[in-house]
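Researcher: Structure for this, please.
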Amino acid sequence: MYNLAMAEKEAVRVIMENQKRVLVIRRGLGLKNDPGKLSLPGGKAEADDYAAEAEREVFEELGLKVPAHLLTFLASKRKMFRGQEWRQTYFWTRITEGQVDEAKLSFRREEIAEVLLLDTGQVDQMRDQFAFGDGVVAGWFLSNFLRRLWCPC
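Model: Predicted structure, token format:
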């Protein structure tokens, strides 16, 4: 049960898709929370314009410019995480092969150990490797979203 007296925290996550693969980051091994776990790019939202916050977070984490107007809202969900109520807002966008080139991405190795492009099968196989903040549910959500997006029917 949610304790509504607690301060709500806001976070944004971005599903960045390229040719039926999704960009996922592996968190740095020296991080306090969830070291070595997989995560979608994003982080704590500091303002109410969630698309702008997602744009800022992707740039801060990866050095990748994804304008807010190219982000499509997917879902917003509330959950308890480490004793606090959080609302995670998810966005989707397509990115080009050139944007994904790790040599062109700028990220701090202590925060991000690696950047991966995973297909649906790989996301399914790696569900248990997602950070608790995203968790197995995020892996399930992501793989089901990708199946719907890429369904040839």
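Researcher: Any notable elements?
Model: DSSP finds four helices and seven strands in the chain. The longest strand covers residues 84-94.
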